[in-house]
Amino acid sequence: MKYFTAIIHQDEGSSFGLTFPDLPGCFAAADDWNNISAAATEALDLWFEDMPDVEPTTLDTIRNRPEVIEAITAGAILMPVPYIPADTAVERVNITIERGLLRAIDKTAKGRGMTRSSFLASAARHELVGA
């Protein structure tokens, strides 16, 4: 998993805007603070569909860029955003889990029309990237 730094800004009366200094043209918007993580993850997924793999720049390097200093001075904040590269190949795994928790997972997955595997993958992704 890689972490890309987002610059988050908000003009009065508008949504939150996100840009990524390492990824030209990668941007997102979120109506409220709680949706920033999901918007950032979606923006990264879309950007990497058509662009080559990029190594993130260190936070210290980004902080010292003139345009980032200017954005922070104007009220923006920096946020590390985790990115899990898309890899649709599936791999079978064996896990050990409490029986009661497994029953709850199976019941919830069934109620949502999901398999156990898809539910666990979704829960893991949500825990890792917040989306």
Protein traits:
18% strand, alpha+beta, single chain, four-stranded antiparallel sheet, 131 residues, 4 strands, 5 helices
Sheet of most strands: 4 strands, antiparallel
Give the SSE order as H and E letters. EEEHHHEHH
| Overall 3D form | elongated
Span between termini: 14 Å
Q: How many DSSP-defined strands?
A: 4
What is the beta-strand fraction? 15-25%
What level of helicity do the residues show? 40-55%
Give start-end ranges of low-pLDDT stretches: none
Describe the oligomeric state of these chains in a short phrase: single chain
Rg (CA only): 18 Å
Structural class by helix and strand composition: alpha+beta
What is the tally of helical segments? 5
Strand order of the largest sheet: 3-2-1-4
Mean pLDDT metric: 90
Task: Explain this structure.
With 131 residues, this protein is of the alpha+beta class. 42% of the residues lie in helices and 18% in strands. It is built from five helices and four strands; from the N terminus they run E-E-E-H-H-H-E-H-H. It has a four-stranded antiparallel beta sheet. A hairpin with a 7-residue loop joins strand 2 (16-19) and strand 3 (27-30).
